[in-house]
Design goal:
Elements lengths: L3 H6 L1 H27 L4 H23 L8 H21 L5 H22 L8 H5 L7 H20 L1 H9 L1 H6 L4 H19 L8 H15 L3 H25 L4 H32 L18
Helix pairs in contact: 2-7, 2-8, 2-10, 2-11, 2-12, 3-4, 3-5, 3-10, 3-11, 4-5, 4-10, 7-10, 8-10, 11-12, 11-13, 12-13
Pfam family, one: ABC-3
Membrane topology: Multi-pass membrane protein
Organism: Candidatus Brachybacterium merdavium
Amino acid sequence: MISALDILTSGVLRYPLIIAILIGLTAPVVGTFLVQKRLSLLGDGLGHVALTGVAVGWLVGAWTSAGPADLLAIPGALVASVIGALAIEYVREIGHTSRDVALAILFYGGIAGGVVIIQLAGGTSQNLMGYLFGSLSTVTAPDVVIAVVLAVVVLGIGLGLSGLLAAVTSDEEFARASGLPVRAVNILIAVMAALTVTLSMRIVGALMVSALMIVPVAAAQTLVEGFTRTMRTAMAIAVFCSLGGLVITVYVDLPPGGVIVLLSIGVYALGLITKAVLPERRAERERRPDAAPGTGTRPLPSAAG
C-alpha cells in the first residue's frame, strides 16, 4: 500500500504535485474573469490551438535535433496559445466574425494543425495524447520551472490587478465610458488564459483545462457570494480537486485530467444540492408553530422550565 509519505517523496510524483497546486491556484483566478465575461469556452479554444504549438515544437525539435523530440513542445504551446489569444481578441474587437464562430475556428483549426504538423515532425497523433488528456510520466523538471514562472505571472496579474479586471469584466460598456483601458484588459485576460492553458497541459490536458478554469468557479458560486469570496473559494476547490485527482491516479490507473475534472463537477453538484436543500430546511423551520416569529429558531425555554 502506497503511503502519503511515499507520494510526497516519489520522484515520479514530486513534479506533478507541484504543478497540480499551481494549476489549482491559477486556473480559477482566470476562470473567474472568463465567467464574468461569458467567455467560458475560451480556454477550450486556446487548448486546441496549444496542440498546434506542441506539434510545431516537435517539428522544430526534429529539424534542429535538439535533445528529446518534445523538448520544445511546451514552449511551442505557449507561443501558439498566446498568438491564439491575441487573435481571438482581434476578431472580437475589430473583425466581423461573431465570437462563437471565432472560437469554433480555433477549435477545429487547432486540432487539424496539431495532427498535420505532428506527422510532418515524424510523430503520430498518439504523441499528442498525453497533451490532450494529461499524463504524470511526461512531467519533467523544465516543465516545473516553466509552470512556476507562468503561475507567478498569472497570479501577480490576476490578484494584483483584480479590481481593474473585475470592473471591466463586470460591465464593459460602463468601464469604457469611465475611461478604463478596456481593450488592454481584455487582451491581458486572454493572455492570462493562454498562460494557464500552457501551465495545465501536462497534468489536466488541453481538452479539459477549460473545465478546471470554469467548474470550480461555478461550484464556488453555489456556496458563497461576492467576487473576491468566489475567487478564493474556487481556488480552494481547484487545489483540492487537483491534488485529490492525482492521489486517486496513484492507486487507480486513470487519466489524471479526467479524474480532476470529475471531482470538480462532483463538488459543483454537491454545492447545487446544498444550495437547494438549505433554504427548504430554513423555510420548514420558520413554518413550525413552535418557532419564534421571524427567527426561524425555537424560542429559548423560560426560567420556570
